[in-house]
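INTERNAL AUDIT FORM
Audit reference: QA-55
Scope: verify that the stored structure record matches its stored sequence.
Auditor: D.O.
Record contents follow.
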Amino acid sequence: MSQSPHKVGRLVDSPRRGSPAWGRPYLAFSWPATVSAPDPASPLSIAATGPSETSKTLKALGYLDLAALAFALPVFLVAGFSLLGYAVAAGAWLFQRVVRELVARRAAAASDVRTSIGLNAASMILRGWAVAFAIFAVGLRNPKAGLAAAVLFLFLFSIFFTMQAITRPAGRSAP
């Protein structure tokens, strides 16, 4: 079983003269500890479910917001909420999601990093304004519909944002 040790820091108690906590123990950073890489043959391996099952789960989580949108329709019907609000929120959500995907593909294909960042930033700003305009427009016409649209959109955004945080940790793209 070959394991490659890596240096990692360890917190230890040690008093130091001249420190604000002189005379009292405090935590200092030292480097004597080592951590070994996991053995891939171990039954406690990290990839216990296999890459294909994990990637399928992550892809499914990426569409949880769309499932919530579909589930919200019967809730709106049964609760008697404004269907105009649902239609505006659903249309705005689907529109901004399609635009986001198209711009993300174009940004990923860009050879210049500044172009990629510019496309993504412009897309975020313009999509936000477009959605805000749609919700405000329906809210001016019908306040209950505007409230329903705003609440549904924020609910969908919360789900989408949470799933992005789960499926794209540390800035890596989703599989």
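Auditor finding: record pair retrieved intact. The beta strands are 5-7, 10-13, 27-30, 34-36.
Action required: none
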